[in-house]
Structure formats: structure tokens, C-alpha cells
Amino acid sequence: MSLAQKSRVCAIDFDRQKDLSKMFFLGYPDSFYDHANTLTLINFETSFEDTIKNKYNVDVIVSSPGLRDFSMLVAKDITFLDRAKEILKDPDTIPKYDFIIIDTPGTGIFETTSAILASDIVIIPVTPAKWSLDTLKDFFKDLNDSIRSGSNLSKIFILPSLWGNSAEKDEIHEQLQRIPEAFEELKKKEPGFDLLPSPKILNPIPSSEAIRKRSEFAEPLSENTIGKVAFDKLAERIIKECTTKNKTFSTSRLAR
Q: What pTM was estimated for this model as a whole?
């Protein structure tokens, strides 16, 4: 929403859990998600324009319960992995937006792979409770494989999320700050990371009861609150980092 105040944004929910969809359309019946969703778009059953639902100045493409079968679709027809890239790189779609954000499930899932293949930039949210260098390494290898398979991925960002004030979290944050240096050493010692750009660390999103409640009840954050300021700064950083317009984003969640 902060990004949409400064640019033209489309948000696509590629996660069967529908977290992004519910953030915009809380309380809507299940039937709301049955028609004109991510899966109908990928199946070419609905056009891009007919799949969009607009709220808070964001064009949203909601998730579908049918995404649970996406792996079966890919197993039957491998071209399904490239469908998102084909649709989002279409010359008729690109000029409409400055940013296309794709919300995905965790690593090792075909939905995430498909989203990465369509993306120029990946943002990896990391929470203190789920922080794991091994998990990051696994995801980095997935990203490297995606580039080898045709992704135009050019930047990787790590976003510390739900960050509070404690000695333990300060220590974890210091570890995150050392990731770019550790990553360069990793590229020298182990195979599977050779195509990746060095990750950058974004400013943390604070742990906030207001953020939790506003997200839970699908409401925008109030102006001048800690959460709103943090997300506004994140939007400014993203815009600054993207010197070329019409970059496609994949916001990828980490699995345990």
C-alpha cells in the first residue's frame, strides 16, 4: 500500500494460504476466490484485465484454492512453470505498472519457482523465530537454479521482519548484516551460487501490535505510526533501488 502511494502497483497472490488476498479482502466468502484468480489467469481462462480486483489503489489478483494442484499441473505440462513469466512480461501488461509484486509460499514449491522465473528482484522476509542460514542457503540455490533456467533475477534483498528490541534480536540482526560478506565467501567455497548477485539487507520492519491488528482486519496503517513509517521507508528504498521502471517483484517467504 505504501508503494501504491508513489507508483502503479499490481499485487499477485501465488500462495494457496491466501494471506495477501485476505489482507485486502477480509471476510469475503470462499466463492469470491473461485472465479478470476491466479490459477484462472495462468490457465488462460481469464484475461489479465478481467482477473484484477482493485482496492486501496492496488490492482490485486487473488489466490485460488486450486493452487494446491499446481504441482500436478506442472508435472503434466512443464510449460506451466513459465506461464507467469509469459503473462507478466507481455508488452500489453508491462506499461500499466511500475511494480508487480508476487506473494509466494516457501521454498521448494513450484508456485515459488514459477514466480521467481517471472521476477527481476526477490525480497526475502526473515523473522527472528525462523532465522536459519541453512534455509537461506537452500533458497539461494533455488534462486541460482532459476537464473540458470531463464530468470532475469538481478537483485536479492533480505527484509528483517517482526523485529523487536532485545539482545537476542540485536545479535541476529548483526548476523544478517554480515550475510553479504559471508555470501561472497560461500560462492568461492561451494558450487550452486555462481549466478547470484550479492544480497542486500533492508531496514527492519518492527514487531508491532498495530501492524498485526491492521493486517488481521485488512485495514491500512495509520499515518505517522511506527509501522507506517517503516513501510513508507521500505517503499522509498525499493523505488530508489529500481532505477529502471517496470521491474517485477517476487516476495518470497522462507519455510522452516
A: 0.87
